Amino acid sequence: MEDLREFRRIVFFSEQDMSSEYNLRNAERVLKNIKLSQLSDINDYLEIYNIKLYFDNDMFLSSWNEETRSHFRATIKETWEEIVWEFNSINDRNLLLKVSSLDYIYQKSFWELFNNLGLYKNIHKLIFSDVLKENPHQIRIILAYQKIVNQFSHEITIFLKGFSKSAELLLSNYEQDNTSNVPTLYFPKSLSIQDKHEIISEYIKRDSANLNFIRLAERSTSQELKLSNKLKLKAKNRSQEINDQILKEGSPLSFGVQVVISEEQEEPARYDHRANTLNATYGRKTLDSLISDVDLFRVFDMLFHFTDTSGLITLVNKPSEMSVMERLFVKSKNEYSTGIAFEQKDQLSQLQIKMFHHYLTRRNKSIEKVIQSFITEVLNGLFNLEVLQFNFPSMNSSFLEKIRVLAPEFEFLIKQYQAYVDEGEIDFDLLKISSEPLRLSQVSSLNHKKYIYTDNHATLNLIFHFFSDQSSTYYIESINNKYHNLHDLLKNENVTLEMFEGYPRKVVKYLVDEGHLFFNGGGFVKFKDEVFILLMKELHENGVINYWHAPWVVRQKIDEMLKAEMLHSEDTLFSKQEIEYLNFHLNKRQFSNGLDLRNKYLHGTNGSSEQEHEQEYFILLRILVLVLLKIDNDLAISHHNQD
Predict the structure, then answer these.
(1) Could you tell me the residue ranges of all domains in the chain?
(2) DSSP label at 313?
(3) Closest to 218 in 3D by CA, of 232, 234, 197
């Protein structure tokens, strides 16, 4: 028999894995030459088990006919019986040797069978302790199997209290925003809350502690961990210490933003990237040509692009703008997710508003005055709200005093608009009756069917297959990874079904059968419905569609999909993504890393630095501008629909 190790070891990862074709080709060689009498190494048995997993998931090479498949199935069945016999022979005398000889790629398979075949019942607890002591880094795999954990609860508890990575295991399981294929870990019930606190506290002190996990402890909200405020503060201080050291040494992932007003530039705005720096240059001639305060307010959407042509806030974090590494980066399941694209947009918008503040000051104007004019002339005048009120703090006030005036005025603005949506007018006497805060998610739109989303499993699968860079469907070896999703591949290349291999071919065939793709006269795979694909692309990029900004032909398609329950709509002022963005800035109700600008000034837990107050005042001004742009857009849609 050929040595099974002559070829790269065969591993089953998932049905979607792009290596399945290569693995099955190697499996063919193994199955043609297998001799049970020559199987002796535990890794050889586990390799056969992984081949069995391919067959269990109905995965075969397309070149195998039914006779070949039946023959290989019979071979695997016979070999599986041998594997079960081999595993049942594992006992106290040979367990340590078996575990120590495992190839890294088969450690999961071993403990999976150890759990599923009930072998843990045959092992003495002292022997299992020795296994942990000799193979400490296999504990993450072991913790994924609850039966094993329950059987050796005391031994695992003792081990975890002395293991250097236990804090990372705890924080990863209870706090980290893991992907769906990361298994849940089961910790022994005998590992107490106090034990967990001591493990994490000791970890924070270590020089080798990972900053990502310290930040998870700092922002912990897990009821399973119940970290005290004192321990969170300890983590916060250690996080700052490590972060300062990183900044001192310099980060290879550094990026910057620069905003300039040009005296000579004829264009209104120019953007370019140079050496990881986003440069935004605005022409003074354009700014000087804006005479009225209302025209100056329009700078925020027309020149700074705080909102897009669909009226959606552009500053929100979008998963579609994050790299694969950023999406896999260690972060809390309760924190607002951000990436470099978000950080650059955030920095740019802050510099834009500060630059605009200084520019207006030179013209004896202010952002506050520009905003007030927009409320008076556009919202109250043009759109006939008539009595919408907003009072700015005195310009001579400190930034701390300005924030303490601005924050409640912002909330009152939201309540006024909700009253207008509900009643068609703003009754201030009625508003005074209730002092309960109004959540941003509760603020309604004047327009029915305002935002379009999907949580339909089939629709989400289509978006994944067409647009995700994590889908294997776009991979064609001869095209050499030129594209990052199936949509871009089919849009730019002429490809046939035969050019796809394994799982990608199966998916493309399914998309053809379902009517989303078709074969044209040349046999090339093409999109069946371009409007449908456009909708899927918009949902992938933004997660939402503003229905009333979509062209009529697109709205027709949306209506069809709403009727088929492939999509659903909501009638709110803000989209879900915008609500998350605003909550991230204003409170900590939704996200553990929220800036909490509203509550910390309301409850006096803000910092004492005037520079910090100034920074946060301009953030609040930006939030106010965004909310006014959303109200303006909602009113404009309503008036257009009434015409």
Answers:
(1) 4-182, 183-251, 290-448+576-642, 451-570
(2) B
(3) 232
